[in-house]
């Protein structure tokens, strides 16, 4: 097949891309229809501009779009890239090789100025999307509030300001569109998991036994004081009455 194309991995069907814009989704009016419940009716667009091909997530699906496993808002595609629309996987082919870094080609030139608290909100918002899961939705305002130990109302105010700074228009799945934009710009990075050692419940006798063992002595049986085989302290030399 001449020209760029997309192969649907589940069915093996090969679909050529249109010369300008190819729409992808579950709806009847799209160019490439994916019969998968995780795909929205209008999920994404694949755009051709000269020798370049890039995918644009429409922000209308909670499951988002990924390229080679990483969530994106817009990204230049290369031959052999795996594009996931929700859980539907497709492989790109027939794309001319160009000297382009796909990770940065479509980022904004300058990121908006952010406060430290806004960075915290964005990091918490995108944390689920940067996990190892196949696809997840960004965190809700309630989850962000619990993560940052602030009120849900405060988080919503921060999100409203972030929508304005990143020029995210009103509409469905606004949080998802914001998260995709932030991840595409590389403003957040996955955080290493925090390991919290499990605390074992210990009875008072357990703690006392451990303390005695650390001192290099064997523990005494319950109900006895002093060293084994000797009378308690203060009774040495005492005659029986």
UniProtKB/TrEMBL annotation:
Name of this protein: FHA domain-containing protein
Q: FHA domain: which residues? A: 22-72
- Keyword terms: Phosphoprotein
PANTHER family xref list? NUCLEAR INHIBITOR OF PROTEIN PHOSPHATASE-1 (PTHR23308)
InterPro entries in alphabetical order: Cell_Proc_Reg/RNA_Proc, FHA_dom, Sig_transdc_resp-reg_C-effctor, SMAD_FHA_dom_sf, WH-like_DNA-bd_sf
Q: Where is the composition biased (Low complexity)?
A: 223-241
Q: What organism is recorded for this protein? A: Actinomadura rubrobrunea
Q: Which CDD domains match?
A: FHA (cd00060)
Question: Matching Gene3D superfamilies, A to Z?
Answer: 2.60.200.20, Winged helix-like DNA-binding domain superfamily/Winged helix DNA-binding domain
